[in-house]
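Anyone have tokens for Nuclear transport factor 2 family protein? Sequence:
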Amino acid sequence: MGTAARPSFDTDTLRRAVEGRTPETLLSLYTDDAEIRVVNRNAQPSHPKVLHGRDEIADMLTDVYNRDMTHKLEGCVVQGDRAAYSESCEYADGVRVMSESMITLRDGKISRQIMIEAWDE
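Reply: yep, here.
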């Protein structure tokens, strides 16, 4: 009697969504009750921006991926129910943004994410 394989995180879909600027595809990688904590210059570690559920996450992804900028997935590592990835972005005017994400997976989808962002000033 074999054991059922756990769904794995789809890194190919992650790359296509990030680099193709398709927030709908990226949103498909999140659980319905997912949570994202964003830490950056405006949302510091003691008061991160917290997004709850697919609707709030969809709003953020739509905003970010509809901007006039490029996105590149620099790397992604998956180990068990954890993953991490780096994303680099560049606005049309040359301003660059870097983000690092640590994620918790449930059934092959993102259930929790901590994203740390830094950008040119």
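The first helix runs from residue 11 to 19.
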